[in-house]
Amino acid sequence: MKIPALLVLFCFSLLSQAQVPSYGTSKTIDMASWNLYWYGHPSYGSKNNVKQRAGIGEVIRNSRIEIWFFQEIVDSADLSQVLDESGSYGHVYSNYWQDQKMGIAWEEGKWTLQSDSQLFKNNAASFANGRFPLFVELVAKDFRDTLLLVGIHLKAHTGTEKQKLDSYLNRRASVQLLNQWQGNHIGRKVLIAGDWNDDIDQSNYHDTISPFHQVMDESGSFLFEKESYAGQHSWYYGTSMIDHIWANSAMHAVFKPNSQKILPLDWYLDAYATEVSDHFPVFAAFIPSTTTGLIEGNVGIILYPNPCYGFAQLSGLLPDDALFIYTMQGEQVTGKFKVEGENAWISGLHSGFYLLRIRRGEQDFHYRLLVNP
Fold this sequence. Notes:
Oligomer: single chain
Shape: globular
Helix content: 10-25%
Largest sheet: 6 strands, mixed
Strand content: 25-35%
Number of helices: 8
CATH topology of the largest domain: Deoxyribonuclease I, Chain A
Order of helices and strands: HEHEHEEEEEHEHEHEHEHEEEEEEEEE
Distance between the termini: 46 Å
């Protein structure tokens, strides 16, 4: 049966007019990273700055994403107005000399800014000649959580053959420094997001080994690894994933499995690549931390997140406390935790319920932990 041409045109018209959908939910912490394509520059980037501004505002309003990492901001004052018009967002921007700035924005009703800074200010050469990572520490208002967030925009894969090699080496030097930095925050939730300008299955530089996997695999996870190996792309004109979200072990423990998405905004915004952005946002959701378990008296021991996805932390231990883990059948589990000072990190457990026993002198304190599949 033939479909009438007018019906086809009507369907395409509806699609072109569809609103950007909601991606965030009230039950998750929703984050996205988006390169804004020389936002606000008078000659580079968008061919229609008015349409770019309107499109970005629509995405921020409709998507319900509570934390944003932005790159390539030229007119930060105008973007601040867009954020103000789109909701109650706090925000900070980088202040280095380059035109393309970075920004991080968050819903003020949910998060409080604890601190912000630019990292590695003595290592300009390792970060695209001074495009320093932007750091914020956010504290949740309604539940127990603190996030250490880093926005990055690494050196691009452009220029002559020598320049491309230098850029590859620059990106590798960047992640080496980032990996050293995050190693000083073991047990805390660290997330690094932005335009990494290279892929993780193999590098854009002559299909060599990715400069990222060599460095950061053991300490965390790239949330878009599956998409990378499947050949998906975050740059509109390219064939590779160059926008990434990396989570350390503590952050990955609260990652909502399979929530990562490359947002197909070209389905909803006309002339997306030329008038809004040549990058697609990359999105991921996380589970807010909860503190559950049997706390006998005011002993100050906290277990979180609970439930978890393979990684949990105990805090508030005393030097002589002893930790034991049992299955619900009473079998003791060994070699699945590490204790340092007042903290213990538990990982590598199969899905199911476990009983944690903390022995303190002559007293026992018990916690029940649920590990999700």
